[in-house]
Amino acid sequence: MNKKRQDKPLNTLSNALLIYFIFIVLIITLIPFNFQIPNQIEISWHIGPSDTITNIFLFIPLGFLFRLIHRHKHTLYSLPTFFFGAFLSITIEISQIFSPSRYTNPIDVLTNGFGAWLGAIALNMLSKKIREKERTKIFDLELPLLGQVYLLIPLLWLNGLALGDDPTRLLLIFLLGLSGSFVLGMIWKNRWMQHKTFSPKRLSLITVCWFMIGVLPSFFRYPLQIMGQVVLIGIFTMLLMQILQKITLKERRIEQRTLQIVFPLYIFYLALATYWSNLPARGNIHDVFQGVAFNKRIEVIFLAVELVASYTLMGYMIAGLRGRQKDSQGYTFGLAFFIALTTSLLTDLTNPSSSIADINISRTILVGSMSLYGALIYSLQLNAIQRLRKKPHKDYNHANNQL
Hints:
By secondary structure, the protein is mostly helical. Helix content is 71%, strand content 0%.
């Protein structure tokens, strides 16, 4: 069988995640969506350090996922990924012409393309390391459990954008960092440690880099606090691996066990995020990037999108918890929708400053719907893996046995 056709189902997770990432990036770059025909086209050639860094880091995950989808194509220096990032950036820049609160900068196209290219290079480096050490090759980077780590990145972005002048919300970012670190540590224990794919120090560095990509927006607002969190996440990862080295896991399939530990922590995060989103918006969120005062509509939108991303990941995790229970997809989707609605309603009702009359029904339905999308992302990948189980390919069978 043709290798390319055989590996095609493995792109399911990457494609679904890439679409989701593009959606979040478009929201971040096009808010407040007040499009109109401009009297004149304004083009800026200003290059600011924070803008440049942001443009690069924002597109690194997109380039990583794009390259993951096309990993079997041996392209010259991964240049197609650069052109993908540049094309998406051109689309954004053209759209910003019609937004009075935005400006178009051709230099952004180059920095966005460069960020996407860096993501492709990072994928090449990781896949080479895994290919040298393991029989499962690049498949590890598309594990359903690793999908949770990917989904945490846009959520971290949105948390940073929704910070405003409330430093107490930094707790939300730290909770997400701990969740991602724990998931990576469990994957390392189950798959990478025995093959010596990554040493504890190297995985700690990878975890810190992952966290830094996610917390970039909040870094420009609270640099000292965020650097402190980065250091703490690195230390936590090292300590976690020291503990995991001494523990013998009874089960080879650690996905559900990992989610059972992480999910309560995430529910705690979600309760805090929903509670804070009900408070009056404070601060100028857009200061995170450019120091330009936006109106309150921008703050409300960022808080709303943050909740949307939160419940998307929640749906993904719920589907992961039920993935090995042989439930029907209808049952899994219904459960994800029900838990999301219940969590949202209970959080509203337990808010001291709100009453039954203050419950936002439209928002509740929206977060419930996004939890369905998160569950769909997981289900698509699980179905792809189950199809691969029927194929006599030793690498895929070996990978599936350890999910």
